[in-house]
Amino acid sequence: MGLVIIFSLVTLLALYGVVRSLREKNILALLFGLGTVAVFGWFTVMTVLHNGFPTSTV
């Protein structure tokens, strides 16, 4: 289930980029960040719904 972890990390980093681009008033970065959040956020949600949360192997 490493895919869920990678997707969620990319989504979180994109959210940080969106906030940063809002502070700097960078419209192009805001558009790309929102697109990334939308796509990877959707993949994260759908992967969790389809496969469940990652389980611990310990």
Automatic annotation (TrEMBL):
<dbReference type="Pfam" id="PF10958">
    <property type="entry name" value="DUF2759"/>
</dbReference>
<keyword id="KW-0812">Transmembrane</keyword>
<keyword id="KW-1133">Transmembrane helix</keyword>
<keyword id="KW-0472">Membrane</keyword>
<dbReference type="InterPro" id="IPR024490">
    <property type="entry name" value="DUF2759"/>
</dbReference>
<protein>
    <recommendedName>
        <fullName>DUF2759 domain-containing protein</fullName>
    </recommendedName>
</protein>
<feature type="transmembrane region" description="Helical">
    <location>
        <begin position="27"/>
        <end position="49"/>
    </location>
</feature>
